[in-house]
User: What shape does this take?
Amino acid sequence: MNGGSPRHDLADAELAQSGARRIGYSERSMPLLEALAHRFSVERPFDGMTIAACLHVTAETAVLARVLVAGGAQVALAASNPLSTQDDIAAALAATGDVAVFARAGVDRRTYYEHIALALGAWGASGPDLVIDDGGDLVNTLHERLPRGGAVTTGGTIPPRPPLRTGGLPVPPSPPGPLTRTPLGGCEGTTTGVLRLRRMAAEGALAFPVIAASDTPAKRLVDNTHGTGQSVIDGLLRASGILLAGKTVVVAGFGSCGTGIAECARGLGARVLITEVDPVRALDAVLRGFRVLTLHEAAPLGEVFITATGSAEVITAEHMAVMRDGAILANAGHFDVEIDVRALESLAVVTHTGVRPHTDAYELPDGRRLLLLAEGRVVNLVAAEGHPPEVMDLAFGIEALALAWLAGNAEKLVSDVHPVPPDIDAEAARLVLAGLGAEIDSLTPAQRAYLASWRLGS
Ligand code: ADE
Assistant: This one.
């Protein structure tokens, strides 16, 4: 690392013990990452390489960081959301001495971007060899620092920084100037981030190859559908404390995440209404027995609203104007742009913050109250702990395998968004199945021949 030893920006280094206990607990449910740690410690795919990561700072992320370190990498980590950081995990990871950690819960936007800049600058001006991102903020910030930079903006200039609290650890260096080297490649784990990268690539602004790890069939099924489905309902229930059975829940967006949320809510007895802009997804929802309607129609009906569109300005003042008293608003999308929180703030005559942890009540002129969870940020990571370790085992397993593949192959790839090589997806699923003790069949030679031939019919 720059100057020899890792540097950090933490809320409280004293929390390391509690963090280490929680990492150990999650680790036991992450057999794929455990297997990869063993394999990587022998194969050393990242020997001598540096990896800058921008991920939610959770116990599961700590397990991934250890796998990368086992593979020979030097790792610097910044948080991918200011509210999802678990300070004890950040402290525990920093205490290992192997990872530079720049993450404190609740930091403002400026410090959030500073932390990303610090992770990118952990090795001075040469920057990292590889990056792993969750939402695209690290890749975006990195492009601003590349020699030909300026192609992409993060939406504003970063104002001057306040003094950093380091929990007794060394004060990190100032954010670096321009980077002198383009990374070999990167990996992005969210649909939102991949959409951003595709827009960059389409404009010719992407300077290195990135693997879209959110796009594999295994990841979509396990992470987007089951992981998001369960953890969003977990966040909703922790924050609101409501009984979901019998409630009318409106899910905006029926992609793989919205599908999981809708199915989980229905499983707990909610009456679920779906809003969509895509006719095929809407048809899927109808055929699964959900009622599909416009958000305008759903607004006066819903008792709970959950956005999962990846788009912006989904729930607006127009919808808030006709919502029921006590309606709960939560966002499951990566960025806090799906619910128009500014509109809610300006409609409200009084705001009661913290009526429960992660729940604010907005009182409107006509006496109705609308309840906003997690400030409109991604509710499963802010009000709960994100996906369970079993889910992140597969998601991060795919990313670790993709990064290891990239370490050896990036130079052959053009600067674009690339799919995860299909055998990596299958390998990850196979290893998870093995960990679960589930065996599957193999094709017989006759079946292989049949499937390979166009001549054989009935
Ligand atoms: N994204 C969703 N859940 C997560 C978790 N538990 N850790 C890291 N990233 C996540």
About this structure: The first helix runs from residue 16 to 27. Residues 149-174 have pLDDT under 50 and may be disordered.
